[in-house]
Structure formats: structure tokens, C-alpha cells
Write a structure and sequence with these properties.
Number of domains: 3
Strand content: 25-35%
Structural class: alpha/beta
CATH superfamily of the largest domain: FAD/NAD(P)-binding domain
Radius of gyration: 24 Å
Helix content: 25-40%
CATH architecture of the largest domain: 3-Layer(bba) Sandwich
Low-confidence stretches: none
Largest sheet: 7 strands, mixed
Amino acid sequence: MSSYDVAVIGSGPGGYVAAIRCAQLGMKTAIIEKYSTLGGTCLNVGCIPSKALLDSSHHYDDAVRHFEEHGIEIPGEVKVNLEKMINRKQSVVDQTCAGVKFLMDKNKIDVYEGVGSFEDSTHIAVKKADGSEEKIEAKHTIIATGSKPSSLPFIDIDKERVITSTEALKLKEVPKHLVVIGGGVIGLELGQVYRRLGAEVSVVEFMDRITPGMDGALSKELTKVLKKQGFKFYTGHKVKEVSRNGETVTVKADDKKGKEVVLEGDYCLVSVGRRPYTDGLNAEAAGVKLNDRGQVEVNEQLQTSASNIYAIGDVIKGAMLAHKAEEEGVFVAETLAGQKPHIDYNLIPGVVYTWPEVAAVGKTEEQLKEAGVDYKVGQFPMRALGRARASMDIDGFVKILADKATDEVLGIHMIGARTADLIAEAVTAMEYRASAEDISRMSHAHPTYAEAVKEAALAATDNRALHV
């Protein structure tokens, strides 16, 4: 039986990063993955493939709607080859997963393919697809088993017409009418992919707005922009029935007054969140406790009820984000090495990769109001930027929330072109507890989208934005 300092169960961004950092710190490390490819949900059926399809569909959308205005004329009709688009997506996934395998080899991390199942707190059985079993011993274990798509109790997901995000990434045809249940990140991103390719898209959301966890101003602006792109929204609607008859899926929902809405489409994407995945883990054998939501319970050190076992990522509390899992993976590895790492969960950014992109870090305006914090707001529209007009990406804004007394930045919320990248500036500034004036006095290259951050900071500093 092979023995290790650390065994990591799950090879998603949290798991494989944890394994790499453990190996870097001199620990003999193994990683266990139930599937034949490394990378977990994110690389295989999540972040990476969805962004590949978003980029491909964006190119098509530009060709159809914007090229002529740019002076680019294409003879004949611009057509979508969905099969080729899906194949390109898969090649991106394959390359990325192969990259993780390379990193495992480079860092001398042993890879076990199979379901990791605890026998006790230091012994793990790896149950392989062919029915065979291999056992390893580990001084410490990191649970990084991630999450799976959630559903509603009355919905039968047949993976053909009633689908999750996994099936939506490999459809054989562009839907005529895609009904999306859930107005969160995944539903909106995949909805936009197929809207661009010609599908009618209807989004049914239980809450009174889409992206309900984000600042209300972002939700309002994104709704406006997506409606302009052809989305139809049914917010404040509770889905009560989903049925399929041949190639037709019928979704019935009630609004807040009890009035029924009936939507018929050829596909229904169920995108109501994700649930922690611990199937086959046999956590109780190791003394690892789960809470009533199925999450692994951890303390502030991410340590489970079994002192030598830790858990990270989607399987524990907090935002289900790949980069949150990565930070936690590094945190645990460095803790095991006797270091004193830290994570500020308030400064983990959230991003929606629609176009325009939406990104945020820190407190929302609603949270500050609820907490009774006296704050000020600085906001700057993207359309006022020369760079935005040059690229025809004029939708959106940057909004900075700062403490009224100290001027410390408490939250930065943005929607517009490349805000997924711009948010890193906001995280950096807030990590060093910058004031709005600090940001306003930093030079930002011209012409860039990043100038909107400086201008929003100026707006928050005595309302002195220069270009509005």
C-alpha cells in the first residue's frame, strides 16, 4: 500500500491546485479523480467549455450584427456550423485537461483514477470503473469533490430535451426556443450562447431580478441589455411544472399574484444552482460530518470534524467559484506546511461572462444599507469612454461604493466590455484598503476601459469625474 503525506480527492481547480502547492512544499502527494480526465467540472463541463462557446458565438454575433458597420463586408450568408463550434470547444477542453496532467507529472504527483472512498481517517479505497480497487494511506486528506447541477423535485431531467448545463454544452442543434429555469450566471451565459445563434430564449427566475446575489444596479443594467439582445424575462415567477411531449417541453409558472404563465420550447435548461457532491465518499467512516445542506462542515482552518482531513471548494460553504476553491487549496497546503496563510472572502470577485461582462467585489449597495453603513457612490458610464465608442461596446458602467467618513472602498461593481479582467484592479485596491481618492490619483492608460474605474473613483471623491 502506497503512503502519502497528502491525498487530494477531486481534481478540479481546488483539488489540483492544492496538490501542486502541497508538492511544491515538499509533501508526497496523490490525487484521486473518478473521471478519466483531470480538471473537474470547471475544465470539463463548466467554466472552460462555456467560455469557449461564448467566444465562438460572440464572433458569429459580431459578424452578423457589427461587421458591416466596421466596413467589413462578407459576400453571401454567414452561417453557423454548430458541430464545428462544439468540436472546437472540446479541443479547448482537451488541451486544458492535458495541461493539468502535465502539471501533475511535473510536480511528481501520483494520479489515481476512481472514486475515492474513506475506510477510516487515514485509509482511502480507490474504486475503479472496472470494479477493481486500490488502497492508499494518507497522513492528511483534502476533500475537493466539488458540486453537481441541482434540480427541482418535480422536474425529470431526461438529458435530451430537459437538460442541465452539461448537456447544453454539446447540443446537436440550435434550439428554436430555449426556456431557461434560473436567472443566475450559468443560465444567462448559456442562454446568450444560443440566443446569439438564433434561438428564442426565455428566462424564468423565482426572485424579482436576475443575478439576485449581485448589486441591484448590475442586475437592472444587465436585464436592460439582454432584453435589447432579444431575451425574454419572467422574474418573480415560481415554476410549478415541467413536462415533455415529443420534441416540445412545456413549463408552467405562477407569478407573485398567482397568475399562470405557460411557455413552450423545444429545450428546457434547468439552471437552479448546484449542490455539493459527496456521493461515494463514505465520509462518516472517516468521522467527517456533513451539514443538512450536504456540505462538508469545516472550521476557519477548513479542517473537518476529523482533524487530519480538510475540505475546500464547492463541497463546503460559500460561493461556488473556481478561484475561491483555488485560494482554499493553497490555504490548506500552506497550513499543513506550518505557514500562516489567509483568505479574505469579502475580496473574492464574482463574474458573469455574458457580453457585456459583469463583475463585482466587496459589498453591494443593498448589503451596506442593511448594515447601516454610511457610504457614498461614484458611477461612470462606459459610453463616455473613447475606447468604448471605438469598439462599439458602450453598454454598462463602473460603480464604486466608499465609506463616507474614511473614503475606504467597500465595493466595486461593473458591467461592460472586459470587466472580468478589470475587476482584478478592484481586488488589488481593496486588498490594500485603498480609498476612492487613491484610485482616482493613479494613472490609467488612455484609451482603455480601465479609465472607467478611475472616473468612478473621481465621481466618488467629491463628485469630480472629468468626462461626464
